[in-house]
Design goal:
With 196 residues, the chain is an alpha+beta fold. The chain has a domain at 134-196. It has 5 helices and 13 strands. It has helices at 77-85, 115-125, 127-131, 161-173, 180-195; strands at 13-15, 23-26, 31-33, 36-40, 43-47, 50-51, 55-56, 62-68, 71-76, 93-97, 110-114, 147-149, 157-160. The chain has a 4-stranded antiparallel sheet with strand order 1-2-3-6. Helix 4 packs across helix 5 (180-195). It is flat and about 55 Å long. The chain binds zinc ion. Zinc ion (ZN) binds next to helix 4. Residues 136, 138, 140, 160, 162-163, 184 line the site of zinc ion.
Length: 196
């Protein structure tokens, strides 16, 4: 129940500039579509409101696919949150994560700053180190909690949990193999977000 939660955890939504009426961003770092009805040749069609699943890029930043009039665009979640709540990014600046975690796109964790400040953040928080960490072939960083023990090696964690789940999902649901990568990225987003 919303009124039982402390106000600090209440999620606030704002329209994303340039996507008003289509998508909104929240101060918790989530993106959702807006319920809307569109006139078509045969009458009208209603698009429902829903949370947009994010994917993780190789640089560990989260992206979402936004669609309008049949055309899609891949957008970085941290930029959408800042554009909605703070405004456009000033020239020469970029979005920085205060705690150095690119998976943490809550508004309180974001700020506009210069690239050099962002690099300092990265070295303080070890993001640079992370980019050299071992990765699965899909580019997911092999750190907890995205690690499972390989059955043949009981001492070491060495397999990508996200890709392992995706393989199981594809096998179980008899999905096309081509969907596996997107499913793996989605699992990876969930695993890393739950850990944040
Ligand atoms: Zn993986």
């Amino acid at each position: 129940m919303a009124d039982e939660q402390p106000t600090s955890t209440a999620e606030h939504w704002k329209p994303i500039p340039g996507w008003e009426g289509y998508y909104e961003a929240s101060d918790h770092g989530r993106i959702r579509s807006v319920r809307r009805t569109v006139k078509t040749e045969r009458g009208q069609r209603t698009f429902r409101a829903q949370i947009i699943k994010s994917s993780v890029r190789k640089d560990l930043h989260f992206t979402v696919g936004l669609y309008r009039d049949g055309a899609g665009k891949c957008m970085r979640v941290h930029r959408l949150v800042m554009a909605a709540f703070v405004g456009p990014c000033p020239d020469g600046m970029e979005v920085c994560h205060n705690n150095g975690d690119p998976a943490d796109n809550r508004l309180v964790n974001l700020r506009y700053d210069t690239r050099s400040e962002n690099m300092i953040d990265a070295s303080i928080h070890g993001t640079h180190h992370n980019t050299r960490k071992r990765r699965c072939p899909r580019g997911h960083v092999l750190v907890m909690p995205n690690l499972i023990r390989a059955p043949w090696d009981k001492r070491r964690f060495r397999m990508c949990l996200a890709c392992n789940r995706a393989s199981a999902h594809v096998a179980y649901h008899k999905d096309r193999k081509g969907d596996r990568d997107a499913i793996a990225d989605s699992y990876y987003s969930d695993i890393m977000r739950d850990a944040a």
